[in-house]
Design brief:
heterodimer; A: mainly alpha; 2 domains; flat; B: Four Helix Bundle (Hemerythrin (Met), subunit A); globular
């Protein structure tokens, strides 16, 4: 599929994308200095990260100009599998954190063992 | 709507046949490889999320451990090398071998500079006492909150990415040599370009999730 209109500068797309990527990167670096609430900062950074990924995939890697099923296979394959990995792996980290916090207080275990049984 | 219009649209975008993705076998295989390689980094980033969430102490403040402007410079170098790589692909397609070769060489210089910066960053952190197993006893990094989870995430994420940059550089050097001899078709430059852009894409995620968040 043709990526540029006849007569258009075929190199332009790369340098326009490069400029936009640089502006976004500077905005991401500057975001910290605005002292916005953490949740806004996280959403801002994640949103711009995805915009950068789409620009690199679409313009640099030409996915915009490929057939839709190729772009769909690539995007859905990576995103869905990543989401499943994240959702299945990371919840365990809370248990690890919890158990390491218990281990850090050794007095807690013997105290629990010697605690009187609840009255029935 | 003409009869069968919907079917024609479906066939144009989703149809199978000899070329299900409307691309050459080389490009299709390259994309399948990129998806599988992306899943490797996806697993590594999920591992990083696990390490970070299971870290009992607060996660170290990155600007105290790294020089963020230096990391931003590395990002600038990689994004710029991606733009020159794209130009090399277009020049090769247009049959402008000289321009393709020039852009390939600039990309190689950019990739080498990025690797040099990463080697400096690793050397600096190792000199400060960071190891894969955690900061060594008495290290200044311990006072900055650096834990074994942090060093493991850092060395594995940037190490795997760096090894991809290195292999990308080898591919680019071979492509440049063959282009100078007139042996690489435009599609060969395009395949090398896809891999190089992928390396840039992965860095976007590492830069945001590890250094900025």
């Amino acid at each position: 599929m043709s990526e540029t209109a006849p007569g258009a500068n075929p190199y332009k797309i790369y340098w326009v994308t490069w400029g936009i990527l640089l502006v976004i990167t500077v905005a991401m670096l500057a975001a910290e200095s605005f002292h916005m609430p953490r949740i806004f900062l996280v959403v801002f950074l994640l949103a711009f990260m995805m915009v950068k990924a789409v620009m690199i995939g679409g313009n640099f890697m030409h996915l915009r100009f490929e057939r839709k099923n190729l772009a769909f296979m690539v995007a859905s394959g990576i995103l869905v599998t990543s989401l499943i990995l994240y959702l299945f792996i990371t919840p365990e980290s809370w248990h690890v954190k919890k158990s390491s916090a218990v281990d850090a207080t050794p007095a807690a275990a013997p105290a629990a063992e010697t605690a009187p049984a609840p009255a029935h | 709507m003409e009869p069968g219009g919907h079917a024609t649209t479906m066939d144009a975008h989703w149809g199978g046949g000899a070329a299900p993705f409307g691309a050459s076998w080389q490009k299709t295989m390259m994309w399948i490889f990129i998806v599988t390689d992306a899943l490797l980094f996806s697993g590594l980033l999920c591992g990083y999320a696990f390490l970070r969430q299971s870290n009992a102490a607060p996660w170290p403040n990155r600007p105290e451990v790294f020089s963020i402007p230096f990391i931003a410079l590395m990002t600038f170098i990689l994004i710029s090398s991606s733009a020159t790589m794209g130009s090399a692909v277009t020049a090769a397609r247009l049959g402008d071998r000289k321009k393709a070769l020039l852009n390939l060489l600039i990309t190689i210089v950019g990739g080498t500079a990025f690797l040099g910066c990463q080697a400096y960053e690793w050397g600096h952190l190792i000199h400060e006492g960071a190891r894969l197993t955690g900061p060594i006893a008495g290290s200044e990094l311990i006072h900055k909150g650096v834990t074994s989870q942090f060093t493991q995430a850092f060395f594995l994420l940037t190490g795997f990415h760096g090894s991809h940059v290195l292999s990308g550089l080898v591919i680019l050097i071979i492509t440049a040599i063959r282009t100078s001899m007139g042996k690489t078709p435009a599609q060969g430059v395009e395949m090398a370009g896809l891999y190089w852009h992928f390396v840039d894409l992965v860095w976007v995620f590492i830069f945001t999730l590890f250094y900025l968040l």
